[in-house]
Amino acid sequence: MSVATGHDRDQWVREAFDATLRDRMRSLATPELIAEHAASPAAPSDALARLLELFRRAPLAGKYIVVAMGQFSDYRVGMLAGGPGTPIEIGETPHATADAAYHAIFLRRLRDIGVELP
Hints:
Blueprint: H1 6-28, H2 31-39, H3 46-56, E1 64-70, E2 73-80, E3 88-90, H4 98-112
Antiparallel strand pairs: 1-2, 2-3
Helix pairs in contact: 1-3
């Protein structure tokens, strides 16, 4: 039997905390909250702000971003692949506004934490 090092224990605690937090955040993802984000992603309520904070804590690799393909038009969802110099994976679905692209990212992030959407 091996003794866990401090680093292993810290990682285990971090993962357990994140799993518990994701479970709590899934319960916040109501249809009303999703509609609130669609209407105004920049002015969140307390519940929406908590959910968005969880999403912001994600590691850089695999993080979704909004990419403007044209000037004030054709916004796409991209995904960061890793560190500096690595290409961004850009989706094919165009969105008319940046807010629409942000909402598409929000819905992807909800799916990523296990929220079933209609």
